[in-house]
Amino acid sequence: MEPVEAPEKDCGRSVRRSRQPRYGAIGRIIHGKQSVRGAWPWQVSLQLLHPQFGFLGHWCGGVMISNEWLLTAAHCIHNDLFNLPLAALWTAVVGEWDRDVEELSEQRIPVEEIILHERFHNFQHDIALMKLARPVKLAGESRIRAVCLPTKRLGYNQTDLCIATGWGRDAEDGILAGKLLEAKVPVHDNAICRKKYGHTVNIRSGHLCAGHLDGSSGTCVGDSGGPLQCAMRDGRWILAGITSFGSGCAKPGFPDVYTRMSYYLPWIRAKIRTPRDLD
Asked: Known catalytic residues?
């Protein structure tokens, strides 16, 4: 796997290095584990100021692809509860790890522009771009860094090391995690998700099927829009997908469905107006 040109030559670099994690501890990313501080420096917490209910805090995850642009899931912004593509209501928190503690590594940046995919509907084209009101301050040893994007359609398999991250709930009616959690998830052929979800969502090329079929781990409410990242041979991480939907919270027999990043590269490039944004 080779990344695209990124805003910095060290896209996808992590303090986590290539050390293999141990899994088993219970976490809000269902049956995941607490991440190492700084391990996922492109992870973003998207906070929402609801016009009726006030400040809701963390609502969805996001992922930093340059110092000015984020990706998230369109359903975080337009869903059955509300349709709020109003930039002034959203704040991106980058450099976050423990949401309950001010660690001085965070940057809270208002969102300036939201671009929903024009054909988003019922978890089809579940992708949105957010432009930040000011560039993120990047530094070599910073806990804030952009992830690498794939250059073309890539195939993934169960032998790839792919990890989902987020602050989501431990159950559909549970509480959000304080510290960022991670879970290793295997990637499957889309036919598996098509069999499980085809009666409600038409699984297409823009989807990526991943997750344990035994219900041992998976994503949950609050993880949406966050990254599914896969390790490259050179030690960097590539953005394979963003969390879209699933059975609820790691229901046995049901993997999760992610928005496949390689499929949406042309859309991303077309919407980011300045060619240098990803250079």
From this structure: 75, 126, 224
